[in-house]
Design a protein that fits this description.
This protein has helices spanning 6-9, 44-58, 79-98, 110-121, 123-140, 147-156, 165-190, 201-214, and strands at 18-24, 27-34, 64-68, 103-104, 194-200. Helix 5 packs across helix 7. The protein has 215 residues and is α/β, with parallel strands linked by helices. The radius of gyration is 17 Å and the shape is globular. It has a five-stranded mixed β-sheet with strand order 1-2-5-3-4, with helices on both faces.
Length: 215
Amino acid sequence: MPLMTYEEYSRIKHATPYTYKIERDDQYLFYFGERHSFDPQDPEWEELKKFWEEFLSSTNSGKRIVFVEGGKRPVLPNEETAIKQHGGMGMITYLANKSGVETFSPEPNRQEEKIYLKNLYGSDQVEYYYETRMKHQRLKMSPSADDNEIKMLARQISPTLNNGITNQIARACSEYRDMYIVEKIKEYWNEGFSIFIQFGASHAVMQELILREIL
């Protein structure tokens, strides 16, 4: 079964956070699709903590691992600092460390990813896409940033829109990453791990059908 396409995804309305569970013979996958917030007051953190506690209580007799999006994060001293500096990935890293569960980031090699995209869209366009993505992330973390600028950049790098070349690159990048991530999930699942996954909500939705099929 192939991944859901962005054309299919664009016709779906879903809640965020978007969560689901898969269980097979006392092995569990818990998927928390977040909204990429850096606000410690965001109510999604209470939802995350409840979902995390359910994962722990369901998997107390087996191997466990946490998959985080975009690279491993450092363990920070408290929830507020973790969220302000690294958003949801910082928060789940903090929670996993408290419970003695290892984190892993199932992301493709960035250089290989760039080569793939540059073969499709050219070097200049791809480098501009990554620069825009980094700028957007920096502004989201800044309390003094202009909300209109953040929204403008978000539209430029959104894989769900089709307003220009950066949207096309974002879509190709996300599809490339999703296939790699699904393969890593399958690999760890076949090794007997129960997996808690925290990625953006669109990844959670688009990977759900294929994960239910292959696990």
